[in-house]
Design brief:
Its main location: membrane. Keywords: Kinase, Phosphotransferase system, Sugar transport, Transferase, Transport. With about 160 residues, the protein is mostly beta strands. It has an 8-stranded antiparallel beta sheet with strand order 9-5-6-7-11-3-2-13. The chain has one domain: Distorted Sandwich (Glucose Permease (Domain IIA)).
C-alpha cells in the first residue's frame, strides 16, 4: 500500500563560500542595506584571495557595467546577487576583472571575477564580498553561518526552497 500524502521531499541546497577568507553573517556587514536584510538574507566573506567564485549552480543573469556586482539565477528561480565591496560602484569597474558573461551557465566554484582588494582598500572602500538571496519568497529557510576562515569550495549555508 502506498501513501497518498507522504512527507514532502526536502528541497535543501548548499551554498558555497564565494571566496577564500573570513565568513560572517550578513548582519555584520557595515552597510544597513545588507545588514538589515533589506535586499534579502545571505552571507558575507572578507576575501583574502581576491578570486570570486559562484556560490551556487545557475545562469549569469546580470553583470553590472561597473563590474562590482553579478547576478546568478538558480534552476529553481532563486536570484542571487554577489556584491563586491561596499560603495565600490564609485570605482567604475577599475579593481574588477569579470570572467563571465550574461547567459553563461556556471557551477558552484566557477571563477566569476578577479578583485583587486588592495586597490579597493587604497581608495578607502570596504572589500567585503556579499551574497544576497533577493527573492526570499521562494525560500522556506536560510541557515545561520558559522563565522571563521573558509575556502571557496566549502559549504557555508543551506537554503531550503518552499
Amino acid at each position: 500500500m502506498f501513501k497518498l500524502f507522504g512527507k514532502k521531499k526536502s528541497k535543501a541546497h548548499q551554498v558555497y563560500a564565494p571566496t577564500d577568507g573570513k565568513l560572517m553573517p550578513i548582519t555584520e556587514v557595515k552597510d544597513d542595506v545588507f545588514s538589515t536584510k533589506m535586499l534579502g538574507d545571505g552571507l558575507a566573506v572578507k576575501s583574502t584571495s581576491g578570486k570570486i567564485y559562484a556560490p551556487v549552480d545557475g545562469t549569469i543573469t546580470t553583470v553590472f557595467p561597473t563590474k562590482h556586482a553579478i547576478g546568478i539565477t538558480t534552476e529553481e528561480g532563486l536570484e542571487i546577487l554577489i556584491h563586491l565591496g561596499l560603495d565600490t560602484v564609485e570605482l567604475k569597474g577599475e579593481p574588477f576583472e569579470t570572467l563571465v558573461q550574461v547567459g553563461q551557465t556556471v557551477k558552484h566554484g566557477t571563477q566569476l571575477v578577479n578583485m583587486d582588494s588592495a586597490k579597493i582598500q587604497a581608495a578607502g572602500y570596504d572589500d567585503t564580498v556579499i551574497v544576497v538571496y533577493t527573492n526570499m519568497d521562494l525560500l522556506e529557510s536560510v541557515s545561520e553561518v558559522k563565522p571563521g576562515d573558509v575556502s571557496h569550495d566549502q559549504e557555508v549555508q543551506e537554503i531550503t526552497y518552499k
